[in-house]
Write a structure and sequence with these properties.
Length: about 675
Amino acid sequence: MRQTMMKRLSALRHTLGRVCLTAALSCILAISAQAQEFMNVSEVQPGMTGYAKTVVHGTTIDTFPVEILGVMKNSGPSGDLVLAKFSGPLIEQTGGIAQGMSGSPVYIDGKLLGAVAYGWSFTNSRVGMITPITDMLKLWNVPTKEEIRPFNARESSLIPIATPLMTSGFDSLSTAWMQSKLPNYNFMPVDTASAGSDDTAMPLEPGSSVAAAFVNGDMKMGAIGTVTYVDNNQIVAFGHPFLKKGSINYFMHNAYIFTVVNNLSSSFKLGSIGAEVGKITQDRGAGIGGQYGYLAPGIPVIIKARDTDTNTALTKRVKIIEDNEMTPVLAATSVYNTVNKTIDRTGGGTATLSYTIRSSNGRDKDITRHNMYYSEDNINEKSIDELYNVLDILKHNEFIDYPILDINMSVDITQAKKSATIVDASAAPVVVSPGDTVYFKVKLHPYRGVDEVKTMSFTVPKNQPLGDMTLEVRGGGVIPLPYLIEKQRYNLTDEIIQRLRHYKDFNELKKEIEKEDANNDLVIEILSQGVSMINDSGTKVSKEKIRGKEPGTTAKDVVKPDKHSLTDDNPSDAKSSITTPYIVKGDGQITIKVVTPEKRDAYLAKHHKINEAKAVIGDDTDSSSADDELVSSSNGKDSSADTKKDNKDNKDNKDKGSGKKNPDKKVQDDIRAVDLSMFH
């Protein structure tokens, strides 16, 4: 009984506490609303005068005169706009309304009318438009989360007063690459300095400078504008869309203004991105809105870059925003910049990279990859292609939302060309049964180096059909020749192949990304029997050669077309691979005979010296089907075929010794009876 009474009293106290808190908040909001009156557009008359607030140096708020010219009905993205003229010494000093003044609050008769937001191109920037505060306050009540098309200034002569994109710690090459990936936003990055007050959080008020940042930490990137109105912990600013992302989580920062830079096109505020003080949650037609004192989570990115030639290493830590479109670009830009500053050069080289992308959805959604890339002219950019592509695939996958917990990437760069070409290979045994192991020796020739032999093994699948089994030996970045022939034969572009490919769920997509071969992998896998080795003219394709092909720079190139079958939904996973310190080039095929255990044992007992299939390098070889003995046995022919074959073999050997040429078959070593395709 006593316990019951205590529980009820406790519940009552909690209820009263909530009521009191709610009442207190209501009082605060009421007082705040009473403290600042708003002017509706219906009250606006031409000839009214007032003033606007903004910062042109440091954190000091200055004012400049405003004269109302009229109302432009339904001219803005969120409704009406108020046409106004701006004047005074400050405007003369800045050369008109400068970039970064967007959001400057305008007061008429002590009432807040709205924010300076728009102008016309090719003017002296003394005339512009004001976004009504009543439209801006609606940002606080938007509950939906959606992605909205960015505002494109080229669609109209009416343009938002641009918001300078201040960058700190980024070089021009990195920001140029970012611009190339996000062309619709018309970013104009400006490299800026740091201020002594950047680490000190300061309260925001109408007229204060504020930054909406994409990146903070060891590198910073964000847009500077002006706060229009503050109500308790909520703010509105800019008066026009920044990127019009809708519901978003930008980082809200203080900003320090060094000066206003005048140029021929448009003046702009040059400032630093200061302390993080809140989060921007809305980016829509009427401006941006957010909360002071509540930080956006963001995505921590740790980047470790090392120049192995100079033994120079850098570690950078940043936080980037979570957004399907921007996260891949911002992460890659941060890595690109770190690599640039580490190697302090441009040009070619080899990049060895590894990265882990952890998801908030759980460990089973994490992605870990390694790879190597070589470029003759720009290894800096090549080092980030894969990370960008994989992030882009993950953020736009059709199965699940993919929130990212963090990203960790390491990159080693050298000027050396760390590549190797497959020059020889052999396999043993040449006759096997399902479940048997085939052993390989693959000779690699490193660029300007000494040949190396890699040993590998391949296990024949237990469900492998009897008959010829063609094994492809290749570098991880190489698309096998028969598949290229098949693509050309049917005019299958990468785009078409990508459309043919279907994943049943996210787990299958994740598996495909993680198992995708690295360029420095040496791979052995079964070549699909469904792919023709003969071109349309009927001639053998062995004369055609393929050079090592590295993945391209678009998202669809990261996960390459299915090497087993172009349309097979259930390809075989039979594969063997090892990692090498080189980007491996070259490919070729060795055909092994798969028979029953009884036929295998009988063959090996009879031909114990013929136990190795050796690849032929550089020249055409006969690619007729496998051993005549096995073929005849499989077709149910009598043993007389064996005698005929043995007699033929003896005759060929005599021809070889006498210098006579065999018009039907190239003279090879003891394994010529085994079906081999040319090794490229």
